[in-house]
Amino acid sequence: MKIGVIGGGQLGRMLALAGTPLGMSFAFLDPAPDACAAALGEHIRADYGDQDHLRQLADEVDLVTFEFESVPAETVAFLSQFVPVYPCAESLRIARDRWFEKSMFKDLGIPTPDFANVLSQADLDAAVACIGLPAVLKTRTLGYDGKGQKVLRKPEDVIDAFAELGSVPCILEGFVLFTGEVSLVAVRARDGETRFYPLVHNTHESGILRLSVASSYHPLQALAEDYVGRVLSKLDYVGVLAFEFFEVDGGLKANEIAPRVHNSGHWTIEGAECSQFENHLRAVTGLPLGSTAKVGESAMLNFIGEVPAVAQVIAVEDCHLHHYGKAFKSGRKVGHATLRCADRERLQQQIAAVEALIRDV
Amino acid sequence: MKIGVIGGGQLGRMLALAGTPLGMSFAFLDPAPDACAAALGEHIRADYGDQDHLRQLADEVDLVTFEFESVPAETVAFLSQFVPVYPCAESLRIARDRWFEKSMFKDLGIPTPDFANVLSQADLDAAVACIGLPAVLKTRTLGYDGKGQKVLRKPEDVIDAFAELGSVPCILEGFVLFTGEVSLVAVRARDGETRFYPLVHNTHESGILRLSVASSYHPLQALAEDYVGRVLSKLDYVGVLAFEFFEVDGGLKANEIAPRVHNSGHWTIEGAECSQFENHLRAVTGLPLGSTAKVGESAMLNFIGEVPAVAQVIAVEDCHLHHYGKAFKSGRKVGHATLRCADRERLQQQIAAVEALIRDV
């Protein structure tokens, strides 16, 4: 079976590493000449809107999936004429637009920070009057890793904020005093069977994920599964979806969903019986889902800008390196390490050992 | 770092799956147009004696390693002029010739079945007179999976046996009444550091490995490590080496070595902290070795001729599929499954569950 992937970055690369042992082969459509997944499959180098090459991809593969959610709706619609596409167009339409996404949470009774649609500076002024400050103005589409957003703390910050983000459709979100950030990675099969990985506690710096620690018997696991299950059913979702929450007052408030394998699920490669990458492929190809149970106590540390010396990283016991083969560049995710330890105390020690190798670039 | 691999079959494929997350890339030299490792790297399609293409490989990569031991000595010598080659030429010279191999065991004081060099029918007659029947006549080179050998039970079997194996250099080996077949996979770094995986109990049918079960605290582990350590030191070996033994009278008799990653070590992908594939790459590239400790209780089942329906294999709990992406063909190794279970009882149950899916082809 040949899988087409829109995007050829590290997520595509890890999908191929997981799918090759299942007998799958891969084609990646990505305009970047140095797409790092290309080492593991065919690289169709073309823009995401290039219909000739999209048609070529559709003709070559059994189904198409995505590495990122900002794929143009036209691309999804075009591909869907020729080949099955998972997750479905509606999932992508919702997930790539924060207004649609937050509105869906509200419709499904899932708590989320106050929010308002902002299509103009006048809208923003009205929204600030209603929601108050501090608040966060975010572009409705194309934001990631802290990009495309601006924190508004004082009235002066509001002036011209809409223009500063490019005068594109935005939402304003009320500021949330959270005690933690957690995410739940779930997988749903074509027949609706759904499995959930353990809740993960995430630490961000400058808007970029740095550390994910898989929890053991988290008290909010059941609540998170309830919320994520509502979204998966609503979208008749197929594949892996990640749902990020804020922990607030002992409950959860929805932040955002990612309709794809997710950075906060990378620990599952070594830390779970069946990784998020293999489970995504199992789901979209109609194979039985794999176990989401943990193997030991796990954490994931991102390497941003550069991968520390390989010999030093792999010399840390219980540590597994994932080098993405990308050029090093400040602020860019270029690799990660998974720790899989016998107990939590050891895990904390080994997290510190890997953190000691990371320098900010 | 780019690694050159002589051979592009499933061992090369699994090396690439292990090395890619370490940031390595791969080139495979293999004459087969459908070499199954080619999906994961560059494929230089050429004969193993093709000096132009060997030179191309040497120019492109940082070092060269091997997927099989029957590489012509001239190939190794030629490559060694231009690029580091691991394991060394001497390791390959010994391992690919049963006479050299058995003579080395004898020199190192490692028990091995009686054996004699057979270069003619007259040599064979003399060897049979000395060793007795039953005995096994084996070609000195190029034998694998039970090929290139003939069991001699009665005096009639001896007549013309040398011609039947092609009148090529052979050895005669005394028949061993063994109670089991075990193998030890070891890895030795450039600096001589050596690590051993747990002893594995192997079951063959028609000369082909069917089942490997990793042991827990095997009483012969220390003895096997002693024997394998002698060979590794003698050869100043770098990389993974597998050593197959017969269990006889509560001790071990050496059968053969394989100077490479080995089928009886495939369980380490899921069943050990660091797989034989990653550890081989760590050793040959001068990186620190990884832990050879077990993760749970593991076994490996080979798929010979065909891979059972993927959906059925991966529906078995605790089961991990490795499909080699090769055309199905009777007697050919086309995939394997690893089981990784919480305890031995569960492991036995799940072995039976996978065996129930395998039909002889």
Q: Overview of this structure, please?
A:
Two copies of one chain form a homodimer. By secondary structure, chain A is an alpha+beta fold. The first copy, chain A, has helices at residues 10-19, 51-60, 73-80, 89-95, 98-107, 121-131, 155-158, 161-164, 221-235, 268-271, 276-284, 310-315, 344-355, and strands spanning 2-6, 25-29, 42-44, 63-66, 115-118, 135-139, 149-152, 170-174, 180-188, 194-196, 200-205, 208-214, 239-248, 251-258, 297-304, 319-323, 333-341. In chain A, β13 (239-248) and β14 form a beta hairpin. The relative contact order of chain A is 0.12. At the A-B interface, α12 and β16 of A face α12 and β16 of B.
Low-confidence stretches of chain A: none
What do we call the CATH homologous superfamily of the largest domain in chain A?
ATP-grasp fold, B domain
Shape of chain A: globular
Radius of gyration of chain A over all CA atoms, rounded = 20 Å
For the largest beta-sheet of chain A, the strand count, sense and barrel status come to: 9 strands, antiparallel
CATH-defined architecture of the largest domain in chain A? 2-Layer Sandwich
Number of strands of chain A: 17
Query: What average pLDDT do the residues of chain A reach?
Result: 95
How much of the sequence of chain A is in beta strands?
25-35%
- Which H/E pattern describes the elements of chain A? EHEEHEHHHEHEEHHEEEEEHEEHHEHEEH
Structural class of chain A, please? alpha+beta
CATH class of the largest domain in chain A: Alpha Beta
Largest interface: A-B, 31 and 31 residues
CATH fold title of the largest domain in chain A: D-amino Acid Aminotransferase, Chain A, domain 1
Number of helices of chain A: 13
Helix content of chain A: 25-40%
Q: Count up the domains of chain A.
A: 3
Q: Give the termini distance of chain A in whole angstroms.
A: 40 Å
What is the oligomer described by this structure?
A: homodimer
Keywords (chains A, B): ATP-binding, Ligase, Nucleotide-binding, Purine biosynthesis
Binding site for ATP (chains A, B): 98, 138, 143-149, 173-176, 181, 204, 255-256
Catalytic activity (chains A, B): 5-amino-1-(5-phospho-beta-D-ribosyl)imidazole + hydrogencarbonate + ATP = 5-carboxyamino-1-(5-phospho-D-ribosyl)imidazole + ADP + phosphate + 2 H(+)
GO cellular component, one term (chains A, B): cytosol
